[in-house]
Amino acid sequence: MLKLGGEWMSIRHRRVVRLLVICLATTALTLVHAGAAFAWKAGAHWALAQSAAQQLPAHNPVRAAMLAYPNDLAWGSNGPDLPYMDPLVAIKNTPWADAYHYDLPGSA
Known about the structure:
Blueprint: E1 3-4, E2 7-8, H1 11-33, H2 44-55, H3 61-68, H4 70-78, H5 95-102
Antiparallel strand pairs: 1-2
């Protein structure tokens, strides 16, 4: 049993302390062994499309279409990123997503 301030810790307190230690150890291991962060995989194209729409001239018909149809803009810009949502991305097995990005982009 653990002693804290001269008193014995209750079972509930020991469980809380054990849970905190496990959480901290897991977080530390994750940070130490983390490879590249995949923070910008899914959604990067959408953020870029939103920024591009705002930077086009006000009278531009492409800007008008992008702002008039935000759902189409979101789906169209996220389409190449959807395969990166696959759990296999953890082991870097993403052939479809990589093909969408690197095999003849813009040639459709």
